[in-house]
Design brief:
70 residues, mainly alpha
Length: 70
């Protein structure tokens, strides 16, 4: 029983290290945080083909066929 807990504990330590590495990378890389915050809350729209196809795909998968029969 103790050996399975030790294996699980080592797995949790490794997982914690991996999650903390995301924070370390975010602090090391030069990120324009003002622009990130702005683009998070103020979307930009475009009429380029790829953008329109993505919007149609998201809306199309949101309205599934069974919703039409409600």
């Amino acid at each position: 029983m103790a050996s399975s807990y030790a294996r699980y504990l080592s797995f949790l330590k490794l997982t914690s290290f991996v999650l903390l590495s995301y924070l370390a990378v975010a602090l090391v890389v030069d990120v324009p945080w003002g622009q990130v915050a702005y683009r998070t809350f103020v979307p930009s729209f475009s009429l380029q083909r790829d953008y329109v196809v993505t919007v149609v795909a998201v809306l199309g998968t949101t309205s599934t066929p069974y919703c039409f029969f409600w």
